[in-house]
Amino acid sequence: MTDLSDELLPSTRRALTHRIAVAQAEGRTPSMVAAVVRDERLVWSGSRSMIDGHAPTADVQYRIGSITKTFVAVLVLRLRDEGLLDLADPIERHLPGTPADGATVAQLLSHSAGLASETPEPWWERTDGALRPRLADILEQERPRRHPAGRRHHYSNPTYALLGALVEQLRGEPWGEVLRREVLQPLGMDRTTLLPEHPHAGGFAVHPWADVMLPEPLTDTGLMAPAGQLWSTVTDLARWAAFLAGGHEKVLSTDTLAEMREPAVGPEAGEWSESYGFGLQLIQHEGRSLYGHSGSMPGFTAGLWISDTDGLAAIALSNATNGSRTPLVAAELIALTAQHEPRIPEPWRPLPDVDEELLALTGPWYWGAAPHTLRLRADRMLELSSLGRTGRGSRFRAETDGTWTGLDGYYAGETLRVVRAGDGSVSHLDIGTFVLTREPYGPAEVIPGGLDPQGWQAF
Length: 459
Prior knowledge:
Layout: H1 10-27, E1 31-38, E2 41-49, E3 62-63, H2 68-81, H3 105-109, H4 157-171, H5 175-187, E4 204-206, E5 213-215, E6 231-232, H6 234-246, H7 254-260, E7 274-276, E8 281-285, E9 288-297, E10 300-307, E11 312-318, H8 326-340, H9 356-361, E12 363-367, E13 370-376, E14 382-386, E15 394-398, E16 404-406, E17 415-420, E18 426-431, E19 434-437
Antiparallel strand pairs: 1-2, 1-11, 3-6, 4-5, 7-8, 8-9, 9-10, 10-11, 12-13, 12-19, 13-14, 14-15, 15-16, 16-17, 17-18, 18-19
Helix pairs in contact: 1-8, 2-4, 2-5
């Protein structure tokens, strides 16, 4: 991943360096290190520091805060894919006796269980985890919930502590060891650890009104570690971004990763540019849909975002408690790279083979009087598009039983069937009882509710 053989153009590299230089100076952070990944390859890394000649390399560890949650979510979904749990399971089925009884695994993954944002005092991020030795200590016993389960997104750090404990319960060993063996080793991420390993940055608070600094404590948060404990480097996080975008057969399938970045619950009121999947934040930035996560712990801020449309990902890490807007910097690195070097599309190529029966399905179809068109894509995929002001479109994946399943839009998850007449010819298409015919509202015998016997008329 450190091979920069596909380096960016000099003008692009300068623009990226300028952006992190401005962020480090205006944000008054001791240092900042960043990287850009294109088509799952590290193509640029850069850094700035308050010390001349000692800018951090891409191998220096920083604390990544809540980006940790993306790792925990992968561990939980591995358990689901192995059949050891169901996302609809209430947490007490596998982890009894916690204040979160009644919440489902899916609700915990998506921060929709209604649990409190933080632990009871003192603030867990700056205090030793020994103060909270039991799971019962990470939530108030009297009022663990702030909202009814499943009703809204409410970000909760204790939620991911519970998910880490769930991993430990079902694997029979510490979640950090499970993470190392099942995820970090297969991905070659040997510089991602629970506690800092040399070389690593120190965390600082910068005085708001004077250019002086205060070291922040580097605590082991114990049971709360799954919420934000991990340390990593931009090189390792570039590997992580490549994995989140493309999957890895030994870690998690591309289908499950796609499930992670589907919105699992609506955003908070007024925050329609942001939502949450399973362990991933989903944001809109400069017209782009990004997924990933921001992170902060005392002394550190971090951001990792991925744009599938652009084939880009970016990471930014800094070692000041606040001021540098590090997650925004990572998003802006994607926008800058895409602006200077827009993605070059793959050349159009004809299909390697074609099924004549599928080819015969292509062309215009009508839902009632609303015109649509059906196109044949690779791997027997069908794509329905509306040609007018009304109607709905979707891509449909071919299934082994001769049907197709909707992948997006209104028809996501719905079944498309080709209905044949008695003589074997195609009569119509059925998508979840919506009938599409070759003529507007015709033939009459297949239209739900029938037609006026006088047919089309002039008035």
